[in-house]
Specification:
Layout lengths: L18 H8 L17 E6 L5 H17 L13 E5 L9 E7 L8
Amino acid sequence: WPLQFAMPGEGKEAPKPPSAAVEKAGGGGQWRSISLTEQPQRVVAIRAFEDAAMGPVVRNCDRELRALLKRDGLTPVKGSEEFVVFTQYDAVHSMGKRRSEVWIDLEDGGHPF
């Protein structure tokens, strides 16, 4: 499964890969497919939730976030209703709950930020 994550930071270039990952990549296996890419700046509306991340729960959170955006006069990117961007944080096998979010990109000029 592809895994993507974001690292906050200043500057315009992608950060260097961790040295341990570079060493393991030379040996093959899953590490050889690691790459870091630069993403353009964007404004994203986020709704966090703690319920189990099952399909119906995630889709419902997306619907709720879209209703809040409409209420507040914020404009999602056109076509974003065709898919759901879902993120999770914390270790898969951690003892605590995983933090989950749905994200919706906002249209340039469709927000005051």
